[in-house]
Specification:
Oligomer: heterodimer
Helix content of chain B: over 70%
Structural class of chain B: mainly alpha
CATH topology of one domain in chain A: Rossmann fold
Order of helices and strands of chain A: EEEHEEHEHHHEHEHEEHHHH
Strand content of chain B: under 5%
Largest sheet of chain B: none
Strand content of chain A: 15-25%
Number of domains of chain B: 2
Number of helices of chain B: 13
Strand order of the largest sheet of chain A: 6-7-8-3-9-10
Largest interface: A-B, 25 and 19 residues
Helix content of chain A: 25-40%
CATH class of one domain in chain A: Alpha Beta
Order of helices and strands of chain B: HHHHHHHHHHHHH
Largest sheet of chain A: 6 strands, mixed
Distance between the termini of chain A: 52 Å
CATH superfamily of one domain in chain A: P-loop containing nucleotide triphosphate hydrolases
């Protein structure tokens, strides 16, 4: 469980990125943090594994304040996948890359081998085991970064902009993968600008503006609230936009899922014909 | 990093910021020459205080203090080195003389004066201005461009290094653990991504610049042209006068040491 209690955070240059923010993320939650650039999303998730410590207030991970433990210690529990894979890949082979964190955490060599195989299969990377990460495409590098984090099986997985640079198919695979991870009981936290992706995942959404959480609730409820979404400088998902425009025809406006939308439309078409 | 903060350009509007960088550079050079000319404490103290009005006028007091604070550690080292080595070479069995202390102090102050003048220069001169000044001093444009780009990318690289450190820490890397060799090796996961992304970035930059016709014509024109104005001439005059005065003193008059002045 991650708990933020009235967290304030200022960067050394004086910019106040978080302004008195409180939230609780239960074990097994699936949370998407959204909001415009500079709203403090990345700053917030960096509090969760102790990369940044609050200037005021407290962040507790499983009842322990992030101030009292090292990042390496927290990382064992809270896996963090950075936005740009090029900021972490440095090994000659993909398997070494995945092994890096495992070695840092002191896993035994035998266990490391097993986990590499497991993580690479999980992300469809088995054929690249001996390849240099630098030879891979952007999307593949991103998956290597993800595999290198999932390999140690952290309880919480945080992903900063996981959909950037992925083609549509990979995105869909990623979505299924994330949903599956969450179904297995992992806490998943993603930061993203991709409303369509969030609409498809239907997680709990935290909307942030100017260092504060302005809304916290189900994706369906929040993303179809036009005023709220505008305040956080995002656009409602396309399905929601269609139905917000069809309000006069007596159709519901709280739809974000393609399949659900199709069903509603079919019903209304059948009723009218 | 706070030491470097004391040298990073601040966009403030002040009369010093508006000065021609070439003239400011002349002033820094004059300061440098004078500081190196004298080994006595008195002129160096004078030199230290002469520059404070500049700092005030430029509105960079806080940053200047920071650069001074950063220089302090090196200053202490310089003092100790000068004092200890000179003492053991020249005066060893006797207790150290006042002259020696004064000498070590002036060496230290010389360093501080140099840092001070360079700090004022870099705090008040934007990289663009600096590049422009180089260009108008007939330095080939390729060099000027490389120089300004390098300067401009320092903060970008610093930020990137921080992100990479965070990313590796999130994968359980502990930079401060182990013996010396281990600690050096700990930096490999930081350095490789940093170098790779710097190379990648430079290739990208080269491509984007070529697609914007970089080097298409031999003779480039500039949107802004540096033209010395009255304050620039004034500073140049002051600098040259200071230099002449200093040379005159140094050559023709004995510079009193503080010790002889104070002793009865």
């Amino acid at each position: 469980m991650i708990e933020a209690k009235n967290v304030y955070f200022s960067y050394p240059n004086g910019v106040e990125a978080l302004k008195g923010l409180s939230l609780t993320i239960q074990d097994g939650d699936f949370v998407a943090i959204m909001g415009q650039n500079g709203a403090g999303k990345t700053t917030l998730i960096k509090q969760f594994n102790g990369l940044l410590k609050p200037t005021k207030g407290e962040v507790m991970v499983d009842g322990v304040s992030t101030r009292d433990v090292s990042v390496a210690n927290l990382a064992r529990k809270v896996g963090f996948v950075f936005q740009n894979p090029d900021h972490q890949l440095f090994c000659e082979r993909v398997e070494e890359e995945v092994a890096f964190a495992l070695r840092n955490f002191g896993f035994k060599e035998k266990a490391i081998k097993k986990r590499i195989t497991w993580a690479l299969r999980l992300l469809d990377l088995t054929q690249y085991r001996q390849t240099s990460p630098f030879m891979l495409s952007g999307g593949e590098r991103k998956r290597v970064a993800l595999a290198s984090v999932l390999a140690w099986n952290p309880k919480v997985v945080i992903m900063d902009e996981p959909t950037i640079g992925q083609d549509y198919q990979q995105k869909e695979k990623l979505r299924q993968f994330i949903v599956q991870l969450n179904a297995q009981g992992k806490t998943v936290i993603i930061v993203t600008h991709d409303v369509e992706f969030v609409a498809d995942c239907n997680p709990r959404v935290l909307l942030m503006t100017q260092g504060k959480i302005v809304a916290d609730g189900g994706a369906k409820k929040l993303l179809t609230n036009y005023d709220l979404v505008t305040e956080a400088s995002i656009v409602p998902p396309q399905i929601a936009q269609i139905f917000l425009g069809l309000e006069d025809f007596g159709l519901p406006t709280d739809l974000i899922d393609v399949y659900e939308a199709r069903k509603v439309l079919l019903n209304s078409l059948e009723a009218s014909s | 990093m706070s030491v470097f903060e004391g040298f990073r350009f601040r966009r403030v509007s002040s009369p010093i910021h508006l000065l021609d960088p070439r003239v400011k550079f002349l002033y820094v050079c004059v300061m440098f020459v004078i500081a190196v000319m004298f080994t006595q404490l008195l002129p160096l103290i004078l030199l230290f205080f002469v520059q404070i009005p500049f700092v005030w006028m430029a509105g960079v007091k806080r940053e200047w203090i920071r650069s001074m604070r950063g220089a302090l550690m090196f200053a202490v080292i310089i003092f100790l080195f000068n004092f200890v080595f000179t003492y053991f070479y020249t005066e060893y069995p006797q207790p150290p003389s006042m002259d020696l202390i004064e000498y070590s102090l002036s060496m230290t102050l010389r360093f501080i004066v140099l840092v001070e003048s360079f700090a004022v220069f870099f705090l008040t001169t934007s990289p663009d201005h600096l590049g422009l000044a180089l260009e108008q001093s007939r330095v080939p444009y390729e060099f000027c461009f490389a120089f300004t780009t390098a300067v401009r990318f320092v903060p970008v690289l610093a930020e990137e290094a921080q992100t990479i450190m965070d990313a590796q820490k999130a994968r359980g890397l502990e930079l401060e653990r182990g013996n010396f060799m281990k600690r050096v090796r700990n930096y490999i996961p930081i350095l490789i991504p940093l170098v790779v992304s710097a190379i990648r970035r430079s290739l990208e930059l080269a491509e984007t610049m070529e697609s914007r016709a970089w080097g298409a014509s031999d003779k480039r024109t500039n949107l802004y042209v540096l033209k010395p104005k009255r304050p620039d001439y004034a500073l140049a005059l002051i600098s040259v006068l200071m230099l002449i005065l200093a040379v005159y003193y140094w050559y023709f008059l004995p510079v009193p040491s503080l010790t002889t002045l104070l002793s009865p």
